[in-house]
Amino acid sequence: MSTNASTNGVTNGAPQKAPQFALSSRMSTGRAMSLDVWSIFNAANLPADCINLGQGYMNFAPPQWVKDAADASLNTVSANHYSHPKGRIRLREAIRDHYSKDFNRTLDVENEILVSSGANEGQYAVWVAFCEPGDEIILFEPYFDQYLPSITFNHGVPVYVPLHPPTNFSDKTTSDAWKIDFDELRRAITPKTKMIVVNTPHNPVGKVFTEQELQKIADLAIEHNLIVMSDEVYDCLLFDQKPHVRIANLPGMWERTITVGSAGKSFACTGWRVGWLIGPQSLVGPTLAAQTRIVFCTNSPLQEAAAAGLEEAEQRGFFKKQVEEYQERRDVLLRYFDEVGLKYSTPEGSYFVLADVSDVQIPEDYPFPDMIKGRGRDFYVGWFLAQELGVSTIPVSEFYCDEHMKIGERFLRFAFCKDLDTLHKAGERLRGITKFYKKK
Ligand code: GLN
């Protein structure tokens, strides 16, 4: 009997050729295989002492009482085991009690609330449940980059409608100056349009959509029978008394809106991956069916902790205090921008600010790694500033389609979900930016 060494893995010491497997076709969509901005502008690639104002996560811990609840849950038996795919009842009840007044209705914990493994996975499950091949999904640019592959993996077609930045920045310019051209939005709607994705407060602009803007989106959604996915994960971070308007509350919109929330943003625990969806049974039910097949259920102990967070937040005055802290963080960073003459739009919500870096001049012979090459100008500026000043940011062109990249290339996103000391240190380093400004 003859033996073929290569079929049983025996190679007699000769280097074994790795088998090649064809990728699924979805991996060639949605920029899935290209290095994403989070991997490029990652601490591992940046100078060791670089201050991270890039990827949006806090450099402080969740509140003590929320961490204590996480500890306590590990000491119970049930919280170490599977949850109901809908989410643990304690968390669904806490979501009901926290959000019912916001939605002007008593939310039904069995049919109108779904806990997900982070907001991102919940959104993915919505697309699994509702996206047919060729369905068009409207995204406002700059859009949070995860939406794109989540849509294309489900054979959806993203359709991009840019928010238009202000042409001139003054010291009074806020994120509200980024505007939708509603004729452009109307023209983007076709018989194949299935959904509009709204994100308020907005990552990365910090824009808080006004009732008038949301009403115009709602009118189009009703006229064309569209679903609205409203990503409101920064709903606890609005500044300057700006009201948070939920599109689900506008007339006729509850039935067609799924609202997305996040424990990570609310309680400084972005790595816990606990999020939730709120909406009518017709949207939540099929999403539950999809999600059950994707993750079955979300991790149990941290759902208990997120529940404790929501249960006690009001009596502890937590969200009010947190907003004040974030507003102070924002203002500290912005004073440094003012000092060095960086133009920006003051964010009314979220923990991001976009600064216009078109005046930064990069020396012609400056060395860049291959992963930056061929990307937008903002990737070069962001890389250069991280090396030269020791402050990392996120280039905004990543949040645009190729055709509209020019709009985003002017901006870098700075995250201010950091303690004051870190923001001051970053601000002091940013003083060095003026020596790189173009000579006028
Ligand atoms: N939402 C966070 C941000 O925008 C993290 C994104 C991510 O790491 N995928 O910075």
TrEMBL record:
Domain Aminotransferase class I/classII large: 49-429
Cofactor(s) needed: pyridoxal 5'-phosphate
Membrane spanning residue stretches: none
Domain of life: Eukaryota
GO CC annotation terms, alphabetical: mitochondrion
Pfam family, one: Aminotran_1_2
Keywords tagged on the record: Aminotransferase, Pyridoxal phosphate, Transferase
CDD domains reported in the protein's UniProt record: AAT_like (cd00609)
InterPro entries named among the record's database cross-references: Aminotransferase_I/II_large, Kynurenine-oxoglutarate_AT, PyrdxlP-dep_Trfase, PyrdxlP-dep_Trfase_major, PyrdxlP-dep_Trfase_small
Gene Ontology MF term list: kynurenine-oxoglutarate transaminase activity; pyridoxal phosphate binding
Family from the record: Belongs to the class-I pyridoxal-phosphate-dependent aminotransferase family.
Protein name listed in UniProt: Aminotransferase class I/classII large domain-containing protein
